[in-house]
Structures are given as C-alpha cells and as structure tokens.
Amino acid sequence: MATSASNITSTHPAVFVLMGIPGLEHLHNWISIPFCSAYTLALLGNCTLLFIIQADAALHEPMYLFLAMLATIDLVLSSTTLPKMLAVFWFRDREISFYGCLVQMFFLHSFSIMESAVLLAMAFDRYVAICKPLHYTTVLTGPLITKIGMAAVARAVTLMTPLPFLLKRFHYCRGPMIAHCYCEHMAVVRLACGDTRFNNIYGIAVAMFIVVLDLLFVILSYIFILRAVLQLASQEARYKAFGTCVSHIGAILAFYTPVVISSVMHRVARQAAPHVHILFANFYLLFPPMINPIIYGVKTKQIRERVLGLFPRKNV
C-alpha cells in the first residue's frame, strides 16, 4: 500500500499540451507575425553585438563585456520559448514532454534572473566610471568581471533548481492542458492537485527578492551617479557623463517595465481575460531581447560605428 501511495503522489503526465493564447486561437497565425519578427530581430541584433565585441579588441572593456553577457542571456531567453511558441502557432505542435517542460521552465526563469543581475552589474559599472573614474581600471578588472558573471549564474541556478523537484512531486489530476504559450511556473502549478501553497509562496518570494533587491541597488547607483554628474563644472561635461548611462537606463526600462505592468495586471485586473495576461507575459519575454541591441546600437557611438563599418560604402 505504501508503494501504491508513493506512485499516486508522484504521478505526472508523459506530455503537457500548450494551448497557446486561450481565446485567441483563431488569431494564432496573425499573432505569430510580430512574434516571429521580434525573434528574428533579437537573433540578428544580439548576434551582431556579440560578433562586434568579440572581433574588436578595443571593445574588450568592462562595459562591453557586460553587454556581451546581456546579449548572450537575451539569445538564450528568447530561444528557450519562441521556437516552440511558433511551432504551436504555425503547426499546431502543442505537445511538450513533462521533462522538456521542466527544462524550458528552468532556463526561462534562470536566465530572467541572470538578466536582472547583469543589469545591476552594468549599473555598478556606470557608477564606478562616473563616480570613481580614476579607479575604473583597477576596480573593474577581468577577474572581478568573471566573478560577477559566475555569481549571476550561481544565484539564478540556486534559486531555480528547487522548482523542477517541487513540481515533480505533484499528482496532476487537472489534465495536461497548459493555458499558456510556454511552460510558465504558475500555469503548470494550476494543473496540480494537493497543497501548492509552498510553490505559490516560493514563486512570489523569489520574484519579489530579485526585482526589489536588484532594482533597489540600481536606483541607489543612479542616485550616486546623478549626484556626481550635478557636481561637474560645465553643462557639456554633465551631458557627456550622463549620456553614457542612457543606453543602460533604456535597457532597465525595457526589462523592468513589462515586469511591473504584468505584476500590477495580475493584482488589479484579475477579472481580465486570460489572453491579456498571457500577451503581457509574452511581451516581457520578447521586448527586451529585441530592443536591447537597438538601444545600444543607436546610443553607443563605438557600437554604432562598428555596425556601420560592416556595410561597405560605395564611392560616388
């Protein structure tokens, strides 16, 4: 009887079925057009950034190494979900294995946490560059940048490793249909029977810990930066100093704004149709990987010049 009870508590379906965007199934083909366009731009933009930074030794500086980390994370983050999402939209290929679902979820949430950490590291980079310019090269050394990257990975893996094990222990009696485009943690938890309170609390606690803590330190960094900029003698020096932060501020807004909007929507607009929440969740996944290369390509002179250099000019 003990063995039988154990089997019941750990029963899970061989496959889950991704429904896509419930309520908008008839529009899947049309919705796939902006999704596919955003993914294509994300691939092209981030691969271009990585190629330029890797090929040009002059860009092997802390700011650009952090940018390379951000581009790598964005590539993995979008590639974890978008190919399967497009398969659901185009080919009605909705099945995903149970363990495949857990792997997708692990990568999705882990790399989101890593992106938040890298944005925080980039804020620290701007703080040192503007507030401690004479110590920039001695503070942000290669070994320190490597340690920051490893710490970002270690934090994400540590926080997300429990998720697959927590989900594996449930009995899924509410069927295999996930009302989402990808294996989002809470969408899977809703299919489970038994007491899921710990999963709910753990998910909210991790999200709040990451967003609040990282965003707090980012804001503190910019308070010190703003104070240092305002103390500069000339207005031109102020514009130049703060101009080096514009791209990073854009990346922060691109990452955190959808997170905050989605969080507010879940609490304020609980009666909204499910597809509204799912579209916001997809926007959070699609927008930062697509827009970050554009922000840095347009606003960072060194990147912009290298990108333009890839296209040979015609002699008139």
What does this protein look like?
By secondary structure, this protein is mostly helical. The protein has 13 helices and three strands. It has a three-stranded mixed sheet. Helix 2 packs parallel to helix 12. The N and C termini lie far apart (86 Å). The N terminus is likely disordered.
Q: Kindly state the mean pLDDT as a whole number?
A: 87
* Percentage of residues in helical conformation: over 70%
Dominant shape: globular
Amino- and carboxy-terminal Cα gap: 86 Å
| Rg from Cα | 22 Å
**Fraction in beta strands:** under 5%
- How many helices does DSSP assign? 13
Please tag this protein with its features:
316 residues; 3 strands; 13 helices; disordered N terminus; 3% strand; G protein-coupled receptor activity; single chain; mainly alpha; three-stranded mixed β-sheet
Topology record:
Elements: H1 2-9, E1 15-18, H2 28-55, H3 62-91, E2 95-97, H4 98-131, H5 136-139, H6 142-160, H7 162-168, E3 177-178, H8 185-189, H9 197-230, H10 235-243, H11 246-268, H12 274-299, H13 301-309
Helix pairs in contact: 2-3, 2-12, 3-4, 3-12, 4-6, 4-9, 4-11, 9-10, 11-12, 12-13
Short characterization:
By secondary structure, the chain is an all-alpha fold. It has helices at 2-9, 28-55, 62-91, 98-131, 136-139, 142-160, 162-168, 185-189, 197-230, 235-243, 246-268, 274-299, 301-309, and strands spanning 15-18, 95-97, 177-178. Its main location: membrane.
